[in-house]
Amino acid sequence: MRVDLRFLLGLTAAALGLGLTATATASAAVTASGVSTTTAAAPTAETWHWGPTTSSDRKGRAGGVIRSTGSGLRISGSLYDGAGAHTCSWLKIKWLTDKGRYRTATFKNCSRSKALPFQVNAGHMLSSQARVCRGTSAKITGKCSSWDGVWSQGG
After folding, report:
1. Taking 80 as the threshold, does the pLDDT of residue 44 lie above it?
2. Mean per-residue pLDDT, 6-21
3. How far is 145 from 155, CA to CA, in rounded Å?
4. Which residue has the higher pLDDT, 80 or 36?
5. How far is residue 27's CA from residue 32's CA, in Å, rounded to a whole number?
6. Distances from the Cα of 128 to the Cαs of 24, 47, 87, 92, 103, in angstroms?
7. Which of 8, 28, 61, 152 has the CA that lies 20 to 30 A from 140?
8. What is the Cα gyration radius of the chain?
């Protein structure tokens, strides 16, 4: 009987050992998923939508989003050129940096069949504005919208 008890105790210990190993593996998986969940739960990129901003003749239009990135803010979107227009649509974006300087980026779209995607890495900015104009393939000639406030720090 004594041998049987030892044998049963050995089996019980082995079963408990396997159970502990399985539990440790399960807890490691939970920890691994907890880490990835924690990483996924880290602050996500904030997004602000802007537009549409249209030219004064309503043949050019732009709109998009501003997203926070690790290095500041990114302005992106699409510039549309109206059908039937024989000129180009221009988008001019200007932003005030945290250093107190204005920066600008200009995009044009002369295709009346598809929108032009654009993207600007503005960095750490205090405010930004956009303006849509009409022009030739070489320069802006007029029919501009007023400067439309796209984003401002603090609302």
Report:
1. no
2. 46
3. 22
4. 80
5. 8
6. 53, 15, 26, 11, 9
7. 152
8. 30
Q: Give the three-class secondary structure for 151.
A: strand
Question: What is the bridge-based pairing of β-strands 102-109 and 88-97?
Answer: antiparallel
pLDDT for position 106: 97
From the number of C-beta atoms within 10 Å of its C-beta (0-12, 13-18, 19+), residue 28 rates as exposed
Dig out the tokens for 22 from the structure: 């399985």
Q: Band the pLDDT of 22: cuts 50, 70, 90.
A: very low
Q: How far apart are CA 112 and CA 137, in angstroms?
A: 13
Contact 125, 96 (CB under 8 A): yes
C-beta separation of 116 from 78 below 8 A: yes
DSSP string, 66-109: EEEETTEEEEEEEEEE-TT-SSEEEEEEEEEETTS-EEEEEEEE
